[in-house]
């Protein structure tokens, strides 16, 4: 029984945020987890390097399936490139909301890259459509049989609408991939949840590996205070967001605050995508949190009264306003345009509610840069206030530990984080849970040894017999055939093989000095054995013989010597030990004191 | 295993299965046809109903005239309507471990089971089933509690009295078991015991049994269930449909290889084609409205109504009905319309695709937006201001005994311009109309039942090939009114086993194997031996651990080292501790070779005698005799242990050990 190896290769996720793509080999099945792109690059490096796989032939032949955890582009952005340009025709699994929203974000991303930046050699709209045709949508907790051995199952992950963690299982070996997840419910999503599935390996994101974030309430209060103050003094607030996800949570937050405080300053949400986005939230309301689901008939949380669609011309309007604009890292599009307009005024404020990848304007201003070089060597001086608020729904260190406690994995592998922070978390995990924790770099392969148990069929009769007698040693025979193992009793094994049992029997003559009548000798032997062998069934049969379990003892008179009796002890090979013991015992003679 | 049949209604089943020490209730349908024996509950005082004469026995005695009223030759109970519960005495329902719900119509008795029987288990159902089930219960409770009735009749239930009553009251079963409707707190308590599940989710019960819901294609979230262990598979098919309406299509493939298939919830109108009925529905509706009449559609607040609204959406413009208002009146009308739009994952492919756009999956959203369809919680309030005639009203309850429909029957019943169209198949429309007679209004019967018909069933059974089929007795004979239609019954081989209310069935199956696991270290220690080509054997000595109904074989613990005790050994210390088993032997011993071996080992005086069955080998000096036969060897010797052991080992050399 070879121990099965589990090989992993992070083609992009490694110790890095952005471009998630992980390859798992489990019991002979190859599964790709996520297929993300890197937002910080504009060249080949933005997509994962699939040559590792393609050098061995076609992707479709090598991979059994692809799983996408959620619709963020750093988890699905390379999918059309992968399936249509590199070439993959096998199944791609994702949840229904992801399947609905993913193509829209991909198209949006394609437009920015191709139409605005004029890049060629990029996937087309048709490719996105063709790629989505290969997608199979899965329900939460549904066990999807990819083929006869490989099954996958999705668990709720929070993070964004439709985000899921996936369990990949072959036989009794399993891997859980978390994607991005969030262990605390927020204003519109619930908390991630998994059962005690004890996977051989848990692959967890670790974006906020060391952060233990202050309470959600404090952060929200802080956010509202900053927005309120800026608006009060007549300033403009820019909140760069991705159309789906945090945006909805912050909208709900501001909407309720505006209502409570009776504020009049306008709130805008930039362009088309968002209205559509809110519509998705309405239709997939079952994926939001308990509270929203319960009240949606009376009041749909995603129908906003105070938040209106943004028009480009509004940016120059005088007076205070709050604008949510895409994209979230200020790397292109409307949010960048508005930023350039407002950056010069110190009354204004930009609030970055999420993580920014290196190389983006968002990342630059967050790291304190105040003079930015824009296109055409133009220098933009940033006078507006820059605030960072962690509203990304990722699990923090506490959340990651909590998930490990829930799932009870045998090994943990950390991805999607920064090396230094991950090192700290790795130590903590190894200390607290006594499991191995890995953190591979990009392109590195991790080998995890699993120890799968072997399922066999046991005949019901044998099982019942053995469970009836606690703590006994069952002994049985599995006829080995390459496909299946079966455990049957020895008797049945012989029968099935068409072999007859060969009975080996011993009969020993034991001479005992006893002048009494035979039946009295028998009685003495019986009492003697009865007294000694408390755990055995010793019986005196009417025909004058004695049985100890299945061993038969009979007494006859000696043909010559009246003072000697001959005891015939007879047993089969299966009772060898007891039989041998009894003859030795009887040879020692009978105790004198026996009546 | 055993099946306890608690309901006699084939489409509102309630069965309990005892399967591998687990007690599983399959559905808990509530038979509401009992309410047809009661007078309707009018929302506003109805002079007609209150003036109905009391019923007088043939001998002139009038002691029942307060409880029973007569209307057009039928006798009705003047009391709060009551329902016929599933059997509660057949087994102790507090021992039920889990309840599996297949669709929202089959859970209406849930509060009676979970709140009155000491039930402590878990209920499993899909999210749409629970949400829409809650709406149905809410509507039911609301429509009965809205009309408080002082009187509660019980005298007629007395067995002696019931005997004297006219049919159908005389023949009503288990009237003493009939119960009043539950309350909202009871509904909430019952629903809180439900755990949500998704299609194809594998749910482990006590490690012994796995249950899985599968899409059944009948209603939003409706499911069939697979109940299986490693070696037995029971499929529970309840309310399935192969027609393409709004729900996800039925999953048939997963039903294959069942040992037993329990088949319930077939169509109640096997002779009517649902598509044809929808066409008739539309044309009757259009005709009535064009003539200036009103149309009343008694219906449940969810289910077929979505399909009807979708048909009308496509139909009204072409039929010139654009200006006719459609009203949907139910305390849960709004919720039902809203909920229908958020279960994208449970819908058919076409509707799912719409959600991806994103657009609402059902076109009734547009009907509402364009003000063609309006919904109200009841006839009171806004509705009375907006109400315009002629119009079309969808409202409940289809039994015509409670709910807003009672009001419209009273209001429109006198005019032959109006039409009532029956689409729900659960109640006989003639019985439903009985307390409203004489009636001038037109009555059209277009029952739409999308559940499997007998042709589809026989195709299904051929495809999934269960070893045994179990079904309600109604399905094993033609309908009583059409006894010549032998095509309207289940035809399968071996013939289906049938059940009736309050019966206990022993289901046939044979279980020979069980799955256990061998720990890797134990597996490593096994040495398989090829006995025949393709078959290898290994002896396993192990300790069997059983926990949570899972069995694991582990390496036996190493025997403890005998303590180095200086104490003098007593005889009893030597008693073998446990019987370590010796292997079974097989093979036979060739006498010539055996004798040669004996001689090689120093026995010089070997003598062989032939017997009828074999040989006797004599060792004269040692006074030892060895009987050799085809399948046995018997060594008879003096008490000389070294000699015996030597002979034993020589014999064993010739034999295979197992």
In short:
The complex is a heterodimer of chains A (595) and B (658). Chain A is an alpha/beta fold and 595 residues long.
Description:
The complex is a heterodimer of chains A (595) and B (658). Chain A is α/β, with parallel strands linked by helices and 595 residues long. Chain A has four domains: 4-212 and 393-450, Metallo-beta-lactamase, Chain A (4-Layer Sandwich), CATH 3.60.15.10; 216-388, Rossmann fold (3-Layer(aba) Sandwich); 456-497, no CATH class; 505-588, TATA-Binding Protein. Chain A is 31% helix and 24% strand. Chain A is built from 18 helices and 31 strands. In chain A, the strands form six sheets. A seven-stranded mixed sheet of chain A has the order 6-5-4-3-2-1-22. Chain A has a seven-stranded mixed sheet with strand order 7-8-9-10-11-20-21, with helices on one face. Residues 469-474 of chain A have low confidence and may be disordered. By secondary structure, chain B is an alpha/beta fold. The longest helix of chain B is centred in the N-terminal third of the chain and has 19 residues, at 127-145. The model of chain B is unreliable at 564-573 (pLDDT under 50). In chain B, strand 9 (203-205) and strand 10 form a beta hairpin. In chain B, helix 3 (127-145) packs antiparallel against helix 5 (184-191). Chain B folds into three domains: 2-37 and 86-267 and 452-506, Ribonuclease Z/Hydroxyacylglutathione hydrolase-like (Metallo-beta-lactamase, Chain A); 274-445, Rossmann fold; 585-657, TATA-Binding Protein (2-Layer Sandwich), CATH 3.30.310. The interface between A and B is large, with 88 and 91 residues. Strand 25 of chain A pairs antiparallel with strand 25 of chain B.
């Amino acid at each position: 029984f070879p121990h099965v190896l589990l090989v992993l290769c992070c083609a992009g996720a490694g110790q890095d945020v952005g471009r998630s793509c992980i390859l798992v080999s489990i019991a002979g099945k190859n599964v790709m987890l996520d297929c993300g792109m890197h937002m910080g690059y504009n060249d080949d490096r933005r997509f994962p390097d699939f040559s590792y796989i393609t050098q061995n032939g076609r992707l479709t032949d090598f991979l059994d399936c692809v799983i996408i955890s959620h619709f963020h582009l750093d988890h699905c952005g390379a999918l059309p490139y992968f399936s249509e340009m590199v070439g993959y025709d096998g199944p791609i699994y994702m949840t229904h909301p992801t399947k609905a929203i993913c193509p829209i974000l991909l198209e949006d991303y394609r437009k920015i890259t191709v139409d605005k930046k004029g890049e060629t050699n990029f996937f087309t709209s048709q490719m996105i459509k063709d790629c989505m045709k290969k997608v199979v949508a899965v329900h939460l907790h549904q066990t999807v049989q990819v083929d006869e051995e490989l099954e996958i199952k999705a668990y709720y992950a929070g993070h964004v609408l439709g985000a899921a963690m996936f369990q990949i299982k072959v036989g009794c070996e399993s891997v859980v991939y978390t994607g991005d997840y969030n262990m605390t419910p927020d204003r519109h999503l619930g908390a991630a949840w998994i059962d005690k599935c004890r996977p051989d390996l848990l692959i967890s994101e670790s974006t906020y590996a060391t952060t233990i974030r202050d309470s959600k309430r404090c952060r929200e209060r802080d956010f509202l205070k900053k927005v309120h103050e800026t608006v009060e003094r007549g300033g403009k607030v820019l909140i760069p967001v991705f159309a789906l996800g945090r945006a909805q949570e912050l909208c709900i937050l501001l909407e309720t605050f505006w209502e409570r405080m009776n504020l009049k300053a306008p709130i805008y949400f930039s362009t088309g995508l968002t209205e559509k986005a809110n519509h998705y939230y309405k239709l997939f309301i079952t994926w939001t949190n308990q509270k929203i689901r319960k009240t949606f008939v009376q009041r749909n949380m995603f129908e906003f009264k105070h938040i209106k669609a943004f028009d480009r011309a509004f940016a120059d309007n005088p007076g205070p306003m709050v604008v949510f604009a895409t994209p979230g890292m200020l790397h292109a599009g409307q949010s960048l345009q508005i930023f350039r307009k407002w950056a010069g005024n110190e009354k204004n404020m930009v609030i970055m509610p999420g993580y920014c990848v290196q190389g983006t304007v968002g990342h630059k201003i967050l790291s304190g840069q105040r003079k930015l070089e824009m296109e055409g060597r133009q220098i933009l001086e940033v006078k507006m206030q820059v605030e960072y608020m962690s509203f990304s729904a990722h699990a923090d260190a506490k959340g990651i530990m909590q998930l490990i406690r829930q799932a009870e994995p045998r090994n943990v592998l950390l991805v999607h984080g920064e090396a230094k922070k991950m090192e700290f978390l790795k130590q903590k995990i190894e200390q607290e849970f006594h499991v191995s924790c890995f953190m591979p770099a990009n392109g590195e392969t991790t080998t995890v040894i699993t120890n799968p148990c072997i399922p066999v069929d046991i005949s019901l009769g044998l099982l019942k017999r053995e469970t009836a007698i606690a703590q006994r040693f069952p002994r049985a025979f599995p006829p080995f055939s390459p496909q299946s193992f079966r455990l049957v009793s020895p008797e049945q094994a012989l029968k099935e093989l068409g072999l007859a049992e060969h009975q080996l029997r011993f009969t020993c003559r034991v001479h005992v000095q006893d002048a009494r009548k035979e039946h009295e000798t028998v009685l003495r032997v019986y009492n003697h054995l009865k007294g000694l062998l408390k755990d055995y069934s010793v019986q005196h049969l009417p025909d004058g013989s004695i049985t100890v379990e299945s061993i038969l003892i009979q007494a006859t008179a000696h043909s010559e010597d009246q003072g000697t009796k001959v005891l015939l002890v007879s047993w089969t090979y299966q009772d060898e030990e007891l039989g041998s013991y009894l003859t030795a015992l009887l040879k020692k003679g009978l105790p004198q004191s026996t009546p | 295993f055993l099946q306890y049949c608690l309901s006699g209604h084939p489409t509102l089943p309630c069965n309990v299965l005892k399967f591998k020490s687990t007690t599983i209730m399959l559905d808990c349908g509530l038979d509401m046809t009992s309410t047809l024996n009661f007078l309707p509950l009018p929302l506003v005082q109805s002079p007609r109903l209150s003036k109905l004469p009391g019923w007088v026995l043939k001998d002139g005695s009038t002691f029942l005239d307060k409880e029973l009223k007569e209307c057009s030759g039928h006798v009705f109970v003047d009391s709060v309507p009551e329902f016929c519960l599933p059997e509660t005495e057949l087994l102790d329902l507090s021992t039920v471990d889990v309840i599996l719900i297949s669709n929202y119509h089959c859970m209406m008795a849930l509060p009676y089971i979970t709140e009155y029987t000491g039930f402590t288990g878990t209920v499993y159902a899909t999210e749409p089933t629970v949400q829409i089930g809650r709406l149905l219960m809410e509507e039911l409770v609301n429509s009965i509690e809205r009309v408080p009735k002082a009187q509660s009749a019980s005298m007629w239930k007395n067995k002696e009295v019931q005997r004297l009553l006219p049919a159908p009251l005389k023949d009503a079963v288990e009237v003493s078991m009939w119960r009043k409707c539950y309350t909202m707190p009871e509904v909430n308590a019952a629903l809180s015991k439900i755990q949500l599940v998704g299609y194809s989710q594998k749910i482990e019960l006590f490690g012994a049994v796995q249950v899985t819901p599968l899409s059944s294609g009948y209603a939003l979230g409706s499911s069939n269930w697979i109940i299986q262990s490693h070696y037995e598979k029971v499929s529970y098919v309840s309310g399935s449909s192969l027609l393409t309406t709004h729900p996800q299509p039925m999953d048939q493939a997963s039903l294959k290889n069942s040992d037993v298939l329990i088949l319930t919830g077939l169509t109640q109108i096997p002779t009517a084609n649902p598509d044809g009925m929808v066409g008739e529905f539309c044309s009757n509706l259009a005709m009535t409205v064009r003539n200036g009449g009103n149309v009343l559609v008694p219906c449940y607040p969810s289910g077929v109504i979505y399909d009807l609204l979708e048909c009308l959406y496509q139909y009204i413009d072409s039929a010139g009905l654009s200006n006719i208002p459609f009203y949907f009146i139910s305390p849960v009308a709004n919720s039902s319309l809203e909920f229908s739009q958020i279960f994208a994952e449970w819908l058919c492919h076409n509707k799912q695709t719409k959600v991806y756009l994103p657009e609402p999956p059902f076109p009734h959203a547009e009907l509402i937006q364009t003000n063609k369809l309006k919904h109200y919680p009841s006839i009171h309030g806004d509705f009375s201001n907006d109400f315009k005639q002629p119009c079309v009203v969808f409202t409940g309850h289809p039994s015509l005994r409670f709910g807003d429909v009672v009001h419209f029957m009273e209001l429109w019943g006198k005019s032959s311009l109006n039409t009532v169209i029956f689409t729900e198949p659960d109640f006989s429309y003639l019985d439903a109309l009985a307390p409203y007679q004489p009636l001038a209004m037109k009555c059209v019967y277009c029952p739409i039942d999308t559940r499997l018909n007998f042709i589809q069933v026989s195709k299904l059974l051929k495809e999934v090939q269960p070893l045994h089929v179990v079904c309600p007795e109604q399905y094993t004979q033609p309908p009583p009114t059409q006894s010549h239609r032998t095509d309207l019954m289940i035809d399968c081989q071996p013939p289906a086993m049938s059940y009736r209310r309050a019966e206990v069935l022993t289901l046939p199956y044979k279980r020979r194997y069980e799955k256990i696991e061998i720990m890797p270290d134990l597996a490593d220690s096994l040495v398989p031996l090829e006995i025949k080509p393709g078959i290898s054997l290994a002896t396993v000595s192990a300790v069997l651990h059983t926990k949570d109904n899972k069995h694991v074989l582990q390496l036996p613990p190493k025997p403890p080292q005998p303590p180095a005790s200086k104490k003098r050994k007593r005889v009893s210390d030597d008693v073998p501790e446990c019987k370590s088993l010796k292997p079974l032997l097989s093979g036979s011993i060739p006498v010539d070779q055996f004798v040669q071996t004996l001689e090689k080992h120093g026995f010089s005086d070997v003598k062989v005698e032939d017997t009828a069955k074999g040989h006797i080998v004599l060792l004269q000096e040692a006074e030892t005799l060895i009987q050799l036969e085809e399948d046995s060897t018997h060594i008879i010797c003096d008490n000389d242990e070294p000699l015996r052991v030597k002979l034993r080992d020589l014999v064993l050399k010739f034999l295979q050990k197992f």
